[in-house]
Amino acid sequence: MANTEEFHWLPEDGMKTEHKPSIKTVRFGDGYEQRSPNGLNHSQRVFTCDFRVEANDRDSFEQFLVRHGGYKSFFWRPPGVNRKIRVVCRTWSATEHITYTDFSCQFDEVVI
């Protein structure tokens, strides 16, 4: 596997973190259900965050996301987390301003 790049931009305050555990559920006829984790790494996080990027850095920010194409993972250190995690960015949007661009991104934690 090629070297994994690191995303170095810092999000604005107010990042949202969502936990999305993957659970298997088996339902029985008497109303009983049994639940179990779906795999060893069944609880992944989804980070929704905004980035304000100055005009001179806009192209490199967007090229980073385009280069990873929504399927290649990269390293990122979320605020408040003391280690890098591996994420993919499957969706992002940009709002253009005169001297900066606001990007809204969703980073999905992945395990390789």
Automatic annotation (TrEMBL):
The lineage of its organism: Bacteria, Pseudomonadati, Pseudomonadota, Gammaproteobacteria, Enterobacterales. InterPro entries: Phage_lambda_TipM. It comes from the Bacteria. This is Phage tail protein. It holds the Pfam family Phage_min_tail.
